[in-house]
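Entry:
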Amino acid sequence: MKICGLTDEAGIRAAIDAGTDAVGFVFHERSPRNISVELAKHLAKNLPASVLRVAVTMHPDRALWDLIQATLRPDVVQTDIEDLRYLEVDTAIERWPVIREGSVPNSVPEHFVYEGPKSGQGETVDWNIAAGYSQRGRMILAGGLNSQNVADAIRMVRPFGVDVSSAVESVPGRKDPAKIKTFVEAAKAA
């Protein structure tokens, strides 16, 4: 389970306390969750070793990606599948390509994020379609999940994991610790 788009220490603490497996730091200028690489490094410094540090990007230029790799040293890069064709990713960094609903390639990678057309918008993907792809690899289901629907999504889609961002915020870019706790509890109960 991943809490994405963390921007402050309160959100990090809430994610750790709730028992999340991964936290995502967004590096995309147009996102309300965009943070600097230095802030991400600061926020990640006290993460337990069991919590993955995920660098979430969308079409990053080479200079930004090089800075992320050198400064944050993430465990995982999550970016659109076509970005992984030109990014030079250190072999120690796991890759979670984002496959967007409506543009799924013939062959899916072993580990991938299944997302709607636009990330971080709270748009629910079609779980019937997602269920078919979840059997083809270790899918992390994203898009429109919240504490009220995550258990149903898990039962129907059977993903390897789930990813949430906007549904656990009080305002765009600011995580709400109570919403994080409720979401994680609902996901774990499923």
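Strands lie at 2-4, 22-27, 52-57, 76-80, 94-100, 111-115, 138-141, 161-164, 169-171, 174-175.
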